[in-house]
Amino acid sequence: MSDTPNVVTGDLEAPTTEAPQEPRDAASAAADARREVHDMWVAGTEEPEWMRSYTNEGAQEMLEADQDPARELHRGTVVEDDFMEDEPADDDELQILNMGPQHPSTHGVLRLHLELDGETIRRVKPIIGYLHTGMEKTAETLTYMQGSTNVTRMDYLSPMHMELAFSLAVESLLGVEIPERGQAIRVLLTELNRVSSHLVWAATQGTDLGAVSMLIYGLRDREYILEFFEKTTGLRMNHNFIRPGGVAADLPDGWEEDVEQIIEKVSQGVSEYEELLNGNPIFQDRTIGVGVITPEECKALGVSGPMARASGIKWDIRKAFPYSGIDKYDFEVPTGKHGDVWDRYQVRIAEIWQSLGIVRQVLETMPAGDYRTPDRKVTPPPRKRIDESMEALIHHFKLFTSGYKVPVGETYRAIESPRGELGMYIVSDGRERPWRMHARTPSFNHVQALPTMMTDSLVADIVATIASADPVLGDVDR
Amino acid sequence: MSMLEQLTAAFPSVDFEQVLDPPQDVAHVPADVYLDFVAAAKTAGFDVFVNLCGVDYLRRDPRFEVVVNLLSYEPPARLRLRVGVPASDPTVATITGVFPGANFYERETFDLFGIVFAGHPDLTRLVLPDDWEGHPLRKDYSVGSVPVRFKGSPKAT
Question: Which of A442, B21, B125, B134 is deepest in the core (most CB within 10 A)?
Answer without folding.
Answer: A442
